[in-house]
């Protein structure tokens, strides 16, 4: 059939998606339903045995109850009067593949009311229609059309109750129309010209519970009382994709109800005819004016499914004639904004970096689609995949890509997946798979920058009717920063062998390379308080460090404890990052001495020796049963050790030593009070934990031998010479022989002293490495000590000597005393002792959330540094920190107090936790006091804490209240602000706003006009730009703007804010508001005292699209409907009216004479005028220009012109070559030649349409375009875009432009037509009519076609001899034709033939068309498909009048037949006729028959013979007819007759008898000049001549 533009249209497709569709593979094999046969055995249906037979075969298969797969392999067409014998009733399940062929059936029967569809699907039957070829498939039901026929019904397919129709492709058309020329009558007037005769009907009609599913195809119904698709109230109609057209006044869709109608995508259009023939029994040549049918009855929104965009014309809109205007409707998948319909799951992270590798395990940087997403074609995804058409399919694609923070510039490549259904689509993406944009280089994201991850899901429906890329988009903002959550952070706690101190090693792994991205690192160490919970670690701080050095601390509570290290810092965006590591330890209590009675009151202090033996048995205990149970331990986890002085080490004392044994409770029993040094340890969490001091019990000596005893005067000392501990080593002189002199030393072991000290001791020249790994270092004071004397040494002096002048490092030291006797090999070790070396603080600082905030400052209020709280919380933990960092004195009576200068802004508790209340700045004072010995020390530090504004509520101005104000005076309504989790406060106290500029909505010009002078006025439609900044004394949280140096700007990822038009709260960046980053809006710390660089200047840029300020007294037009020509190859490029006058021609392009190349007709408000009589909506111009190939854009008809297309085509100046030519004066002028001859080529064009409003109507109201006005061109919504395809086409409320693609389709050009059925006129024959003509034509390629037809045939007599049909020359009955409408003899008749072709079938090449008449040898060359041919004069054939009447009736009948009843001539030879005597009275025989035989010129001319015959038909009388004045017998009285008399008078000729009688015009019995005068007299009529003759 006809390739309509709808079948080529691609709706809602971006250029990239069109390209994407083109690259999709067509071989996706879906998971098919059980009833689907992917490889059926098709039965071929063809016309090899004739069309009628082929249709009969098809009918037989479709009627059978079996499941059949039928494929057309040739066209089938039969049109004739077979009385509906080929109509089909479908039974069973049938699959019909049109395969690019046509199926046409026509019944030539003029039954105007009989309902007999071509195909009927009965209950339980199913018919599936495909067109596997992708185009050309066509089913048509029609019949013969003549000038006498109108509104014959031919409905194509009926689905009865319980039947089912599924259409996947092809064109289904009911009826047709044809132009026929003639004279027609309506109820009010008559019309001569072409009107349409129509065969009417539905394409698909659903009865009862019938079902139709339309997945593709085109559907055409015709006729005012019909529709393309009809659905009963209980039937089901599902439209997934279709083009539907109501032609000739028909509706698109007619539904009796809405409950079972579901539309996902459709295009509905309507067509009308200007006039159409209306059938009536009494007057078949009646006509009516055509009117558009409704696109669909009711609201289209009642029928749609899913998230769709609906366009529907107003069904009640009338034109100036009172008839319904063009009706259309479309349903297309909506182009939704991000995060509507499609959403991403919260991945649980907000940053991602490409600077580190092996960040996390698989999936931890994966982003997924939310589970509630439903594709548009859900449930129908496989329909196109099983329609046996390689040109159609369904596919769904996901495309992930990373863009800059504005979402405009791609920074990564695509990561895509494709499937044939959503179930098979990959629904997540691993961020680590992204590459650079080129797809090969590694992706490099700039740390500290914001980015957008965008997911686009393209649901691609490549159907028979349309190709659609249904796009859904979701976005997620994230920052480029390494995944700090993958930081491998842990601690390892160790105990020194003395058991009094614990060393903590921090182990952050550097293998993944992310530690450097944790900025401003600090580590806080301590132990967890009992009331801690997950996520809320309460910790008693013990140490602080900014490095990962080993730290140690003591004085922990006994029992199970949790050592905690909290690593804190910031990521690249200033977000606080915190990592906590824990290790469970067991802090052993001191050993207690108990009696068998259970009295445990004898608790020893460090270094104590119990040497009173009062009882036989003693017990030692370290851990109570409660402490064991709290750690899940028992006595079996405890182990005791005893010092073996001979071996110089601790040995197992649980068993095997006399007088010592471990009890099941974990206690150590001393039988008979055996002397010795004892210690206890417990196994917990994978290692041994020791008692803080060894216990020496002096009792029964189990073997006298050499022994030494070490005593110290204190357990703690400072690392300076003053206040040093002194150790004294004394041998047992009474119990052993110590010779004359002996030497004292101390032994240290690795792990029992600080690592720094151990290395220095080990490397000393006097150090001796012992076999057991110990290091022995002698006292330097004296080498040998005299017998009976103790060896005494101050430890700090000794250590400074060893450490070569350096102070002894702080920490726990465990020493083993050692002695050797001079001149002997005897040596002995004593019981170890422990000394804690402390360091006095020299200064203090305050940490804020683990970071040193004062750094030596803050000794006065004026000197106090400033720290800004993080807006993610209203808490900040302040702590003290010593200088130097490992100092631990004072350590007695220590107190730390905190206070706030303004508790309305922030409070601080006794633990240093600051709680923000409202934005502002407070001074926090820390006072630290304590004692070092008896010395009291005190430190005070000050810190300014800034509580930033964390959340802002605001709204845009009431613009109507701003009318008349200058834009610079307009401000935002700042309603409320608060800090994190604080109370809401009056926003105007804290913030100020300023309108800085205004521009176009699309951002193409961001500085239109001057805001200092422009005033707010009606119809303003700008994008407004504000600055939102804190007032002095307040600020937002800031971030480092590293690219500008040491500058800081507002952290738009942390500030939460509402929108101008919404109360929804989100981060400023997510709202599309970004930090001000131009001059004057930085915070520069080193210039903090300068006003221009203070933090309150850092603000946010706010944008607002100003709602069009509608004038309340005006009318705003929401929809403008326009009709234009849709060009085809060969149509004139200038489609508008071309004035006949040259003066008017040259006005084209001037005021009120717009250039109208596309023949634009504005339907909306048609006929409504301004006060000065012009159109309320006027055309400014309508132009077109041909586009170069390749196109920049997609070229899909009615889609907006792509950016760059206009510039690539010299901004459309090609159209000026059509409009203009150079005049004689050298200036351009409108070219009539070009306008009347330049035609469209088969190519793609740009059409540009510009409309104007803003005018005052006759009702006194001004009319404007609404800012969201919809422009509907030929039923399709067209995007407003300027001539260049770069900016919005909504210039203002009175000026809109749309520039879009149009394709001029190629179509056959018919160059000649041979008309059959037109024969030469014959006297007394009925003239041929249009119905008798048939046309066979030839196109420009020489192909024969039957697509042309004769639309008109007019018979005329060319009176003026110009060879044309002119007004007044038409032959009608009694006018050029006999009264009965037959040809007359002796006439020069001409025929005027008009040929037509339907636009979709082809075009008649009017530039060189040749018309041939089959019965005429000479072809007619013409510039139109119309032509006039003059035939030879018709031959005179004497007519025979036979009268059978007898008697007295004969005379009257002869008179009437001869025309003599009133004034006719004289019957020559019957004298009595002069007196009125009846002819019958003069007869001499009974009359049987009268024959009147005309002469060469007709019956009513002189000389006609009258033969009287008797009953035997024998002539018995002959008379001649005389017409007075008609001398030459031609039936007329004129100069030729006068000339005949003159010749007779002058003896140049002799008149015959009848002519002689006729010449005596005045009846004076003579033929004289008087008779000539009477004939030639202009004042005497022929009636007067007859009267005188009588």
Architecture blueprint of SSEs:
Blueprint: E1 10-11, H1 15-23, E2 43-45, H2 51-63, E3 68-72, E4 76-80, E5 88-90, E6 93-97, E7 102-107, E8 119-121, E9 126-130, E10 138-142, E11 152-153, E12 157-159, E13 164-167, E14 171-174, E15 176-185, E16 190-200, E17 204-206, E18 211-214, E19 218-222, E20 227-231, E21 236-239, E22 243-247, E23 251-255, E24 261-263, E25 266-270, E26 275-278, E27 286-289, E28 308-312, E29 328-333, E30 351-352, E31 366-368, E32 393-404, E33 415-419, E34 428-430, E35 450-462, E36 467-480, E37 491-495, E38 501-506, E39 519-528, E40 539-545, E41 551-554, E42 559-570, E43 576-587, E44 592-594, E45 602-603, E46 609-610, E47 617-621, H3 625-630, E48 638-644, E49 649-652, E50 660-662, E51 668-671, E52 676-684, E53 687-690, E54 695-697, E55 708-712, E56 716-718, E57 726-731, E58 741-748, H4 755-762, E59 768-769, E60 775-778, E61 785-786, E62 791-794, H5 795-802, E63 811-821, E64 827-829, E65 833-838, E66 843-848, E67 851-852, E68 866-868, E69 875-883, E70 892-900, E71 906-908, E72 913-916, E73 920-932, E74 935-947, E75 951-955, ...
Parallel strand pairs: 1-36, 2-3, 3-6, 4-7, 5-8, 6-9, 7-10, 8-12, 9-13, 10-14, 11-16, 12-17, 13-18, 14-19, 17-20, 18-21, 19-22, 20-23, 21-24, 22-25, 30-36, 46-54, 56-65, 68-74, 75-82, 86-94, 87-89, 98-105, 98-106, 102-103
Antiparallel strand pairs: 15-16, 25-29, 26-27, 28-29, 31-34, 32-33, 32-35, 35-36, 37-38, 38-41, 39-40, 39-42, 42-43, 44-45, 44-47, 47-51, 48-49, 48-52, 50-51, 52-53, 52-54, 55-57, 57-62, 58-60, 58-61, 58-63, 59-60, 63-64, 63-65, 66-67, 66-69, 69-72, 70-73, 71-72, 73-74, 75-76, 76-77, 78-79, 79-85, 80-81, ...
Helix pairs in contact: 12-14
